[in-house]
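Researcher: Let's walk through a ligand-bound prediction step by step. First, I give you the protein sequence. Second, the SMILES string for zinc ion. Third, you return the three-dimensional complex as structure tokens. Ready?
Model: Ready.
Researcher: Here are steps one and two:
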Amino acid sequence: MRAIGIDIGGTKIAGAVVDEFGEILRSERRPSPAGDPVLMEQTIVEMINSLAEGEEIAAAGVAAAGFIDAAQSSVYYAPNINWRNEPLREKLEKRVSVPVIIENDANAAGWAEFRFGAGRLVSDMVMLTIGTGVGGAIVADDRLLRGGFGAGAELGHLRIVPGGLACGCGQHGCIEQYGSGRALLRLANEIADAGGIGQALASAREAAGALDGGIVGSLIAQRDPGAVAALRQLGHWIGQAAASLSAVLDPQLFVIGGGVAASGDLLIEPIRASYLDHLPARGYHPEPDFVIAELVNDAGVVGAADLARIYVGDHR
Ligand SMILES: [Zn+2]
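Model: Step three, the predicted complex:
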């Protein structure tokens, strides 16, 4: 049975009809009216209705950034859209002809990776998504771990430095401040300021006015020692966070996703080394694999659709 997945991003909304094997059969993209919750709801309704036309659809899953309740129906809080305790499922179901569920976007992407991507052969997996911020998803015992209130697996706010850098969440020392794309730029700027191996970063910064992800990414691809050192520092922090996560969850696999994951083995290698350095009871703990995510752009829609299909199956 086919299902629809909708993934609400900051600039665009992606939608697709997805079959039970995770294959996308039809897709649609629209600009995201992020500042306008009424137009946002209207756009989601139009996309579900247009994708459902002429199809037999079991359900639709809508993925959004934010805290979603454990019943997969309300958005407690969305950082980019003015949704506060928004009963989104109820509102959408009045206007479309299929059952709807709401899911956190990182959870949806992680679930897709678990079902159809890098995690398809394991039962326990942690995904860490290194984009502008740090996101994540946990699969434990073949199930997506949402937490009792639905706000679990906010891996970006795992504290790794007591009294460390201030975070947008109101706390200090979260991994998001040390292991995100934004943190990579901070580290690259520090290395550029220090001279030595930072020379190429400093010249690129001077030429462009400021460093951005594209500049640092291309210097990493050229194996520039300064840019690679910044990436290694980031990997060091992510590896520490992974070691703490292993103590709680003991996954067989860590999947690394997000834009920074394009660096591939250059990122995986320092993560694994730091993980082993910080692992409790090292030598007695089976070693998980660290791999790059496989479903890069489509994970959100594929995961949202699959979770919607599963929800309808469980609640029939
Ligand atoms: Zn935080």
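Researcher: And what stands out?
Model: The mean pLDDT is 95. The chain has two domains: 2-112+297-314, 121-292.
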